[in-house]
Amino acid sequence: xxxGYFDDANKEYVITTPKTPxxxxxxxGNNGFFSLISNTCGGYSFYxxxxxxxxxxxxxxGVPTDFNGKYFYIKDGDTVWNPGWQPTKTQLDEYExxxxxxxxxxxxxxxxxxxxxxxxxxxxDTCELSQVKLTNKSSQTKQIKLFSYVEWCLWNADDxxxxxxxxxxxxxxxxxxSTIYHKTEYRERRNHxxxxxxxxxxxxxxxxxxxxxxAYHDNHDPEVVCEKxxxxxxxxxxxxxxxxxxxxxxxxxGETKSxxxxxxxxxxPQDEKWESKGIINKAPAKKLxxxxxxxxxxxxxxxxxxxxxxxxxxxxxxxxxxxxxxxMVNIWNQYQCMVTFNMSxxxxxxxxxIGRGMGFRDSNQDLLGFVHLIPERARERIIDIASTQFxxxxxxxxxxPLTKKGNSDIQP
Length: 412
Description:
9 helices; alpha+beta; Beta-galactosidase, Chain A, domain 5; 2 domains; 6-stranded antiparallel β-sheet
């Protein structure tokens, strides 16, 4: 069975069915903020370290596969669907996923409503952008409800997955206008927080997973979307915090409306944690969100990302009589080498990012694949690796990219 094809002109792999044998994942990010996104919008995000600064949750070895994700639910009358098919798995009239170089695009069509989602991590900022465009292809006015959804990880992915006695008491959020702040443990021992925001007035929100999904429901049939049709305005205190925006959309025949969602990581100096007593310093978040308020802002950032990758991939090229050789050497092999540099197999669909960190031997070997592309960063990586060695030349098997220290959980 054929699941897709290469579009060499656009440097994309086009997936034409959501029912691939396994989730086919793209790796987004270059400079600290990273996201994994599958062809059905599954995946997760982290900042620098997939174990210690995990932003959103992902469930490995779950059934059905590839949960959680960055989901957009569309409620059109009694029909609820997702542009990437999962998690509702509503049969779509049209589906397409384009995994590009540093970005992914999704197109879903159901009952003459078309949804297009562009997702990428801009080079300049610690965030992931999702531009969602809804178009009414029918001759009748459509009343649509759009719900976003992410589930927050409580930062340390290892602790998050097992320390339930404590974690069910620590989740903390704050909602200001259209921005949901995830600030778990900020008071106690952290100087960073996460945000999920949209560039329009919202008609509702939820931050409690229990309130959004409802008892005995899960991601494929959240009670708020499928039964109530309205968010509850829940504020999570402990348990499992999420971020949900509700936007009521009226679409005239032929009309398109666009929304920009920003999932971001923010950090404050220790002596600038608070605006006032008990009020977190939101200045970094406001500065970040102000940069992505319009489609033009997003498209400019996307153009810069594409230029960056085109320039990078043009450093070394081959021309042969075999199109497949040209494709792999000029595009996908080099892209894979850069992804390996960024993550060193420490985070993937299979590797949870909890135990490995970055391999000492692997990272040395990987240098050969990208040194010609980014020599300055290759030099930095060599220094990082060498700094973990002992005087006798031995080293820890792995090291954590955030601390740049050997992973003592795994012996030398």
